Amino acid sequence: MKHLIHAVTIASAIIAGPALAEGWTLVPDGSHLAYGSIKKDTVGEVNSFTSLSGTVSPDGQAMIEIDLSSIETNIDIRNERMIEYVFRKAGTATLTAEIDMSELSALEVGQTTTVDSEAVLSLAGADVEFDAELFVVRLSENSVLVTTNDMVFISTEDAGVNAGVDKLMELAELPGITRTVPVTARLMFELNGEQASAEPATTTEVAAVTVPGDARAGKKVFRKCSACHKLKEGRNGVGPTLFGILGAQAGQVEGFKYSAALNDSGITWDAQTLSGFLADPRGSVPGNKMQFPGLKKDEDIVNLLAYLQEEAQG
Ligand code: HEC
After folding, report:
1. N or C: which end of the chain has fewer CB within 10 A?
2. Which is it for strands 71-72 and 112-123: parallel, antiparallel or unpaired?
3. Domain count, the chain
């Protein structure tokens, strides 16, 4: 462990990479969101939404609003039924996702890349989480085009629209409509302001220590935690939410029942204490009830901390 703490101290002098100062705005004319459905097992149809709007903040939080009343099924009565029974007159659905902006800013005009994104679709009161692989083209200094690299499948049950689909079947006297829906998207974004200016590097500090490491790699490491921990505020699972964990006092998340060991530990979670805990959860806080053997590689810990820090800024 000594070796890691040393690395953290030295690397506190290291500075984060260049960032785009401006956010991005969705260009409705260049964007298209569609989904498919199959009825009677044989007839495939494409529906789309003609009105989209959205933004991506400088730190990569994408928020896209889908005007549900702009549904286009190519048959008027069907549009009305979709709005009434499936979307239950919800007005808009929102799609939120996180995009790694450092990767996007590094793209030269004409270059392409694929990025993994975790997204949440909120529709008429239901939240559907899904992973999407996105294909990104930097069209110009000020614009990027983002498309789904593969189809994304969304289950009508998860989206809470099963009852609405039942109703459509009844009205149209159909024996069946598929309950999982392939979705594709093409989203064009333009940079706010005129220019993609490479801002001077900035340092960000959490609990007075700058965390070095690769946040992208850290995100993968976090998969080892995500069965028990979420990063959203108030979302406790088997373990407490890790929302805002850097800089927090141990054992303080509301609504979570901690072991006495952790509760009384008096620890403040900073890069050093977290590194020690994650390397050896049982040894460092004896008697705590986190069923996790620890991360064996220093590198994984450093990267995970970078990811937690990045999330904290989101
Ligand atoms: C099998 C479930 C499980 C896994 C996997 C797991 N944890 Fe935990 N974690 C817990 C539980 C349960 C607690 C509460 C322990 C207690 O009260 O003694 C906890 C506590 C914590 C705390 C202290 C939180 C606080 O509010 O003080 C941190 C930090 C933490 N875990 C980080 C992680 C990280 C990072 C990973 C992945 C590398 C991870 N955990 C993996 C279940 C888990």
Report:
1. C
2. unpaired
3. 2
For helices 298-313 and 271-279, give the axis angle rounded to 10 degrees.
130
Atom of ligand 1 at shortest distance to CA of 265? 27
Cα separation, 92 vs 137, whole angstroms: 28
- Sign of the Cα pseudo-torsion (103, 107, 113, 118, in order): positive
Distance from C-alpha of 13 to C-alpha of 292, rounded to nearest angstrom: 31
Residue 253 CB less than 6 A away from ligand 1: yes
Pairwise CA distance, residues 166 & 154, whole Å: 17
Q: For residue range 150-162, what is the model confidence (pLDDT) as tens digits?
A: 888 888 888 777 7
Q: Which two tokens stand for residue 301?
A: 């810990």
Q: Does 97 contact ligand 1 (Cβ within 6 A)?
A: no
Identity of the residue numbered 120: V
Q: Which two tokens stand for residue 5?
A: 């703490």
Q: DSSP code of 11?
A: H
Looking at ligand 1, which atom is closest to the CA of residue 261?
18
What number of other Cβ atoms are within 10 A of residue 42's Cβ? 7
Domain coverage including residue 252 = 2-16+203-313
Residue % of the chain over a pLDDT of 90: 29
Q: Which atom of ligand 1 is nearest to the CA of 225?
A: 37
User: Contact at 8 Å (CB) between 257 and 265?
Assistant: no
Return the number of other C-beta atoms located less than 10 Å from residue 296's C-beta: 10
Pick the last residue of a domain from 142, 170, 191.
191
- The residues that bridge with 93 in the sheet, in sequence order, are 66
- Among 169, 191, 213, the domain-final residue is 191
